[in-house]
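Minutes, methods subgroup
Present: GH (chair), OT, SY

1. OT presented the first of two proteins processed in the latest run. Sequence and structure tokens recorded below as shown on screen.
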Amino acid sequence: MEILGKLMGGVARLKLMRLFLFNPDQGFTPAEVAARGLITPAVARREISFLGKLKFIRPGMCEREAKTSKGGITLIKKKRMLGWYFNRDFAYAESLRDLLIDSRFLEHEKVVRRFRHGGRIKLLIVSGVFIKDKNSRLDLLIVGDGLRRSKIEQSLKTMESEIGKELRYAVLDTKEFTYRLDMCDKFVRDVLDYPHERLIEKIKLE
């Protein structure tokens, strides 16, 4: 990611480009861009301005829910806010998508290293974005014992900020996974019966 970030003008810009490329129909406010990319609001505004001038993104209104309290009752109202959307007419959209989505953050050995402090992982399966299968139900499945879920969730959040996409994932204790496997649980079978890759496999699955 370091080399590609330099080519693209910095890691923050790379994160934003992936965010909009992976979510072409979704609008983001500057605050949401900063939160999703794990960058400061000032950096987010700077990069949004740059990408807006290039016509890579376009301004548009986003509808969000806002909670207010009145007389002890919580009210939810719709609020329209200025946000930014990917510009589908951008001339180099497909070329950039191929380049940015096929880069080194998807290398499987690096995915394994991300979770080395996550506990005794016995099964790590990747699918979806990691194998470029849009029809997958899940992107990542982690099974193990003594799992440090806060560490795992932090690693996932960091990966999401780099990839630009919310990951669909499941974290299961070995006992629960084994039970589901023996019961031919539909969720587990949907993961195992469709395209995936097993990066760690210390559980007998067949």
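2. SY then presented the second protein from the same run.
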Amino acid sequence: MTTTPDRRRPADPVAALPARERLRINEIFYSIQGESTFAGRPCVLVRLTGCQMRCTWCDTDYSFYEGAWMRVDEVIDRVLSYDCPLAEVTGGEPLLQPGVHTLMSGLCDHGLEVLLETGGGLDISSVDPRVRRIIDLKCPGSGEAANNHWPNIEALRQTDEVKFVLADRGDYEWARDAIHGHRIDRRCTVHLSPVWDALEPAELASWVLEDRLPARVSMQLHKALWGAETRGV
């Protein structure tokens, strides 16, 4: 009697590791930081796979599913290999994976300045205090405003930053009211970023000036440098 060979793909041994020792990574690359007060600085970006939100204007939807498992120590070694003092952990939504906390603390332990870009739907209170947290609060135009985790506002520190991505005047007014209502500008730096090819930056700037809003108009520098569709930059 003959047996049929088992042609099933072998399980990835990294995927079987404890959750805090592994990460599903979409991409790791060295580039110019495109957003936040760190825009313009060389930076290593670690993009994690997976996101619980589906923003209408999302420009990284390829990160929802694409990716491969890596040990956290492998990710740290890869980041250190670029010999760059600034690193950002982004997504997708990086806080979905428990291993992100091991990663961020490990990078801080190696003396790096570490940024976390999070969508604002998950609790940030357990993030290593050495990490600079950048929260992307979702406006109505994103389709995800109902999923903001508002207790995060109370957890903000002066080293953190809040970003609003704006698709239109309605988003601007919503963000303006949120900034004033929660006194976000008194807690940390606030950014207003127009959706690429949807809202004219000059128009947004005129609204900010008219309202004397205590926020920065921020552009996506990486798109200006390399184009909106280029990945790995």
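Chair's summary of item 2: Residues 18-226 form a domain with the TIM Barrel fold (CATH 3.20.20.70).
Next meeting: continue with the remaining queue.
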